[in-house]
Amino acid sequence: MAKKQRLDKIIAMQGALSRSDVKILIRKGAVTVNGQVVKNADFGVDMDNDLVAVQGKEISLEQHIYLMLHKPKGVVSATEDKNLPTVVDLVPKELWRKGLFPAGRLDKDTTGFVLITDDGDFAHDILSPKKHISKTYHALVNGTITEEMEKGFEKGVVIGEDLTLPASLKKISSEPQGDWGEVILREGMYHQIKRMFGAYGLKVLELKRVKMGKLDLDPNLAQGQCRKLSKEEIALVKCREMPSSTEEKE
Ligand code: URA
Question: Ligand 1: distance of its center to the CA of 192 in Å?
Answer without folding.
Answer: 5
